Please model this.
Amino acid sequence: MATPSALVNVMIEAARKAGKGLIRDFGELNELQVSKKGLADFVSAADIKAEQVVFEALEKARPGYSFLGEERGLIEGTDKSHRWIVDPLDGTTNFLHALPHFAVSIALEREGTLVAGLVYNPVSQDLYWAERGKGAYLNNEKRLRVAGRSRMEDAVLATGIPFLGHGQHAKFLKELHQMSQRVAGVRRFGAAALDLAFVAAGRFDGYWERDLKAWDIAAGMLLVTEAGGKVSEIDNSDANPLDTGSILAANMELHPVIEARLKAAQG
Ligand code: IPD
Ligand code: CA
Ligand code: CA
Model:
């Protein structure tokens, strides 16, 4: 049984509050008989509302911290050494299509280092959280550990498939070709924050994706490292995925193997 710190409790409260609103809107979405455009507007309103709820809850508990959110961009606070990185609704396309796989993602950076991260799925109410140096947990009871599988043939990997107007389609196909023939399965679940949480929980053995934003991955990155896994930038091991949006996360054994395959895909 792990007891979250006061800081993590602040994050949990913010995520649960936003999650409640998202669940209400998700339920309503099923009833709504609106045009496709109307639906998209409804979802983007749900997204903006959720970010507002998270922002207000965090700002109330820790006034002055800087805030980087998908909807609001960067709001510089008086305290520049702390920065929240927030995706109020990761998995928007799932949400829009009534697929119950989306999350609220909240991370905190101190002096440029991730110190706390939380990913909350309001449908399952699973709450994944981690604090630097203290481990990663699911809800209050379960310590998270990345999977122990070390052979590609046993591995299930997650990824993100480029979509209309987004991503590098040809490059992705080459990478998929390298992976799919060597592993037990490749999945595309549609929420980067949950993909990383699932790596931390040992469900996925690895995950790679390009063209992401810091708010998609900040919390999940800490989950994976605190669960004993490795996170890196795909092309440049000195770069930070938060800056480039390209990420590879896996257990220690599989990380170099997947990395080599991604390199081979470019050759
Ligand atoms: C998206 C999800 C998805 C990933 C996309 C992201 P959003 O975030 O994380 O899994 O493939 O690239 O943009 O738009 O649903 O917050
Ligand atoms: Ca996202
Ligand atoms: Ca989002």
